[in-house]
Every structure is written in structure tokens, then in C-alpha cells.
Amino acid sequence: MALHVSGWSKKIDNEGYLIEPGDWNEALAKKFASEEELVLSDDHWNVIKYMRNYYDEHLTAPDSRFVVKYLTDELNYGKDAKKQLFKLFPYGYVKQACKIAGMKRPRSWSTG
Asked: What's this model's pTM, rounded to 2 decimal places?
């Protein structure tokens, strides 16, 4: 399958996740967010950029606990960090955050 955005085409799996995370760009993130009926705020972008940086360093998507720790430590959400993650991505970390950030669909690990 392929997704066509702004004159380019990217391969996606049958659930709509990128096959190759290196194909990700911000226009694609906006397209995925639109499909999820999300308007990306600064906090969304901060999480997405954290996830992309983590992927660049580890070649895998960060588990949600790392994102919660980022929200706690770097964005100062404290004990409300996990709640904030699900406020930002109400249909789930894997379903929305991973998809919008251009990660492959995680097979099986904690989703929060």
C-alpha cells in the first residue's frame, strides 16, 4: 500500500503505519493527525520530536514509559504525565502517537 501526500508516495502497511520510519516528515505527521482528527499542538510536536530523536538513536520506537518520563522530566507534567499522554493521543499511544511520529507498528510492548 502507499500513501500519497504533496506529490510524494510512502509505503504503509495494511493498518496505515509507515513501513520505513526514515520516510517520515512533518507533512506526513500532519496527514496522519488529520486522519485521527487531531490538531497538533506544541506538546504533540514535542512528543513527536522526542520519539523521532529516540528512534534515530535506538532504531526502535520508544516504549510509552519513556515518553511518560519525558513528559514528567522535560515538560514538567509531574504525576499527571501519563494522563497528559492520553489526553494528547486519546485513542492510544500505539494507535496515534506511534503512527503520527512515523514509527512501525510496535508488535507487543507496553502501550501505557
From this structure: 0.87
